[in-house]
Amino acid sequence: MSDPSLLVVVQRYGDVPGGAEAHARAVVQRLKPNFAIEVATTTATDYRTWRHELTAGIDAVDGVTVRRFPVERPRAWNFKLFERRAFRAGHTLEDERAFIDAQGPYAPELLEFIFARGRDYDHVLFFTYIYYPTVLGLPLVPERAVLVPTAHEEAAIGLAAYKPVFLAPRAIAYNTEEERRMVWRRFRNERISNEIVGVGIEMPADRDAARFRSEYGIDGPYLLYVGRIVESKNCGELFSNFLRLRRLDPSHDPTLVLIGDSEMAVPRDAAIRHLGRVSDQDKWDALAGCAAFVMPSLLESLSLVTLEAWAAGRPAIVDARSPVLAGMARRARAGLAYRSPAEFAEICEVLLGDPALGDRLGAAGAEFVAATYTWPRVVETYVDLFAEVRARLS
Amino acid sequence: MRILIVVQRYGAEVVGGSESHARVVAQRLAKLNQVEVAATTALDYWSWAPHFPPGESMDGPVRVRRFTIAGLRSPTFKETENHLLFEPHSLAEEREWLATQGPHVPALLEFLHREGNAYEAILFYTYIYEPTAAGLPLVAERAALISTAHDEEPLRLLPYRALFQLPRAFGFLTPEERDLVHARFANEHIPSEVLGIGLDAPPWHDPAPFRERYAPRGPLALYLGQVSEGKAVDELVADWIEYHDTGGAGTLVLAGTQRMPLPDREDIVSLGHVSEEEKYALLEAADVLVLPSHLESLGIVLLEGWQVGTPCLVSAHNAVTSGQVARARAGLSYERDDFADALAAVLARRDALGAAGRRYVERECTWPAFDARLEQLVDLVAS
Lengths: 394, 383
Known about the structure:
A: alpha/beta; 8-stranded mixed beta sheet; 15 helices; B: 8-stranded mixed beta sheet
């Protein structure tokens, strides 16, 4: 018998940035042995413009057939205006429709493909609830649709347009317990089959903090942030919290190490070291040596790097206002959440002053990741969800 | 509890099975709840022409809001329909379906979007029209769908694929409708309630004059409803003629507006439209009620016949009425080539079958029994 077929729908695919996109690609690679997989996506690579960059038609990525459909118009230059109109109280249905189209990626041919051919696949897996391909594509094949929402609290999720996305699919693969609870509260869709799936964390066996320190010339204890350095991830607040800590507590002399591309100004301070993009090995070496990993972002449906920090046995410092990160840190007993700059400073002082505490929290984090976020478990959970969908189709 | 009922047409003078059901439900629920209705200004479904004034009015305790229709039924609707149902077409074309069919009522949709949160339960009637197909998704988390679905081509169209996955609960008219929807959409995980209907006690009526007129000629077989090909009355007439011409006795009485030609025969009588009292007098005087229609979503006339102890003969091609008859054990269903045998079998056990029918409606169609099922449906949504 041939493998069951699976169509994966995602807004961008291939060598493109983005957490959800990386997530989709990693899942496709892991599911490849069990399913005849194809990907349906757009020709865009940049979510800020959705500009038509790649060639439309059949492509291949990691040996998987990828069907790219043209983005017929880039994201509207005045997209923020559409956003404001749709997000204000008392907005109209037309405001919502205009927002979905303006947000993009506007690819009507992708929808026609799902309409005409979607039912040739046993399952259709949609990544990310928010964009045009999912909002308008999922209702075309609800009886075989599985959704990976990658949702978090934000204005868009309150729009009526998203109700069918969360109520119509056959199954939902959430990233975290916190995401599931938020979605259940909003949509009352507990009756839909679902699992906490997320992704698997894999790390190299060889992780060497000393190698990282010598390569980059870093001495003493350091806090580590990995990710895009942008205002939307609350990095500005991280900088001011960190500099405040340095001013008020001269005893520990910590460094803040930043790994990732910067889309904002990084303060010029000897204690803040921005390394830009580094190799995967360097990242793991850096994780192994940090006093704590810091994740200031409020809007995460799953923070992969935080999971990686835990997998590496290090504690995480997170913002208490982020339900997902604070909830996971509490459940994993592998991190501490701050509600103010003063609490941020206190947490840092405690962890810098008591390295054994950091090790204990980190060990709990490693256990938490091993229990849920491993590839064999992720693959098995998808296989089970899809089998259930298939059983109900026949 | 604050409850909203959404239905394409509403009012005492509106003709239609789903619409009548919606009005009954509104009035029943209004005994214990604050009930409102959102509908259009239309009276008929073939033109959707404005008839009622737009805005608010009261129907007894029920507040009715009627919204102005922006698009009447498109003159090219039939061609569009044939194209979509039977020919290859694009997604973009299929998206036009709802608006072409009408009633296209953006104001009603905006009302649901704006005010839907103010209701604890919203009941949507009839899956097929825009107020439900485009309105229910806006308030899905508090919606019940009373789909009144038949096994018909439009049920396959795009706007309904997701619709049948969205409501918090379904209200079905019959178990057969439930089975059809489950088979088509694999949505058994959504809770549902089979509502059926409640019936008032029959008004005063006197069957004696009809008995005296027809009994001397043999058994009285009654058809009650619109006399048209759409209701398969032409098939019934042909079956009857075959039965009569091969030695069968009696009279076939047709009561209802006549919309088709009939043969000129002594054993076939068309009475035209009859009053409520005449209807029950005929039902009680009849030896058997025959319902040949292939497409009935409830077959309420069967229940009315059983109220006065008359058994039924229904087409085996109609799953709903066949199911009703089998459940009540108050009649038989027939294939076209065994009409005469089935008729004879029912006539032979007329009183026993009729009594079973009477017991069935006394159990299932009293107002307390109906109200309890309705309350169950509302609880499924509001809980």
